[in-house]
């Protein structure tokens, strides 16, 4: 009579007690040392000290009861037993690595990683992303904020939302949003005595953003003023806006970032002069990732949100 095993029941051999195995850290140290035939190079690869590798290998030899390396002063070489053991350990470790990658590949399908600038993440994406998460509870969404451009070949990022030129070779690039710059400040700046004309800003503290010069706006406003060289300089536009809202000076800011603070009254716009932002907002991903369900789901949610926001921003142009 043949006994049938219930679905999900482990094979009978799996119920046996697993024999005692050497520590994984010792096996990894031994495999690296065997591959390089050098404790020093193994230590560099594993980001540990030479002494740590030597200690792990020595402990493994004592547990096995035989030498794996022959020592020749500072040089080492594999013994015949060590060479055979290294081959089998390497095969076993590669099987573990392959199994781990296969498992992670399955979980990656359910994780959506989005990269964008800190300012855009804080002021636009974070307040809205909740509705996407509610629509797609099957996805684990990870939001990464950085001013550094993503390297899609190295970083585990699915989508990037970036302000820039759009010249990103090898990527799928979709233009999302134009923008404009204009000055804003706190309604309580200078005790509420706000400048009425652009020339009234003479001598007032002008907050500076890295890569966002005042000079083009001065020219649009008919002012022959040099670029400000003094005052606070901010790398992050969100912090620049925060400083303006706290009454520390006047900031030249993008309408897409200032929108919520303008509506709440934390800042007010000065004058009717604006200039186009030289950088546009783009949706970027690897071409192979575009048709994947998770990227398509995010794009399908994002585009209507951007369209609605674009219509709102038209009043600030």
Characterise the protein shown here:
The protein is α/β, with parallel strands linked by helices and 317 residues long. The protein folds into two domains: 21-108, Arc Repressor Mutant, subunit A; 110-316, D-Maltodextrin-Binding Protein, domain 2, CATH 3.40.190.290. It contains nine helices and 13 strands. It has helices spanning 24-36, 39-46, 50-64, 80-108, 118-135, 215-220, 237-245, 255-264, 293-313, and strands spanning 69-72, 75-78, 111-116, 140-145, 159-164, 172-177, 180-185, 206-209, 233-234, 250-254, 268-269, 275-276, 280-285. Strands 7, 8, 9, 10, 11 and 12 form a six-stranded mixed β-sheet that branches. Helix 1 packs across helix 4 and helix 5 (118-135) packs across helix 8 (255-264). The N and C termini lie far apart (82 Å).
